[in-house]
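Hi R.,

As promised on Friday, here is the backbone we talked about, encoded as structure tokens. Could you run it through your design pipeline when you get a chance and send me back a sequence?
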């Protein structure tokens, strides 16, 4: 990170600390066979986060033990699925005012959580998405199918609900009150798009900030395989279609 990046993070940290006013923050990390990366992620999560919750989604390696050794609270979710892991994490932090999410593969830069948390912690927004599309990303970090999928999904959200996003990025922060209002349901690939659709439909105050992105450690469970990419694409588009054609009530 260059001097400007360091300065930006320092300024954001200062603003965040000033805005917290006793508000507590929980960070949820879905985890599946991340023993090579999970320790790095936890070590770099900003100290303003009060609790780190890792949800083990059936790992067969030492992910859970490493996460515990690094100070995270680890829970198990036997049902495979990104959304299932996030929902389990939400159940374990009902008392926290702000909830943020980050992947466990070290593709996100954990320190960028400061930028994502700030608009929510200072109460200017209900939800903030970390955009990999507008941020600086390592060549090859975001695969072509992911780039196209993000573009199509966010285009449809803007077309149908009038709110512009550029990414369905995994790094995000949301106030607990807003999160509870969304009544999240999806238990696998549709989790992120469901959250953004519902927030847009309810006219919540949403924003994006640019975040950095790098090649993950290990292989993506979704976009890293043709089968995974197809399944994720179908689920995301079907989620958009479902909320477009049915009346959703909070």
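Update: got your reply. Pasting your designed sequence below so it's all in one thread:
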């Amino acid at each position: 990170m260059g001097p400007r990046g360091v300065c930006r993070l320092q300024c954001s940290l200062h603003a965040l600390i000033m805005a917290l006013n006793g508000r507590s923050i929980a960070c949820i990390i879905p985890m599946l066979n991340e023993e090579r990366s999970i320790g790095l992620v936890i070590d770099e999560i900003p100290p303003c986060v009060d609790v780190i919750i890792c949800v083990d989604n059936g790992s067969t390696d030492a992910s859970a033990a490493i996460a515990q050794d690094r100070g995270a609270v680890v829970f198990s979710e036997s049902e495979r699925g990104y959304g299932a892991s996030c929902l389990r994490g939400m159940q374990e932090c009902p008392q926290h005012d702000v909830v943020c999410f980050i992947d466990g593969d070290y593709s996100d830069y954990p320190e960028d959580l400061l930028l994502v948390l700030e608009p929510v912690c200072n109460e200017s927004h209900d939800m903030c998405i970390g955009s990999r599309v507008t941020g600086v990303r390592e060549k090859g970090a975001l695969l072509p199918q992911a780039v196209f999928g993000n573009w199509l999904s966010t285009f449809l959200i803007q077309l149908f609900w009038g709110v512009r996003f550029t990414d369905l990025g995994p790094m995000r922060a949301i106030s607990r009150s807003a999160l509870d209002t969304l009544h999240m349901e999806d238990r696998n690939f549709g989790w992120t798009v469901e959250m953004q659709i519902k927030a847009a439909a309810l006219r919540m105050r949403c924003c994006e900030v640019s975040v950095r992105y790098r090649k993950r450690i290990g292989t993506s469970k979704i976009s890293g395989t043709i089968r995974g990419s197809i399944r994720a694409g179908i689920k995301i588009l079907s989620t958009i279609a479902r909320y477009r054609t049915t009346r959703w009530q909070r």
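One thing I noticed while checking it: The beta strands are 25-31, 51-56, 73-76, 98-101, 127-131, 172-175, 206-210.

Thanks again,
M.
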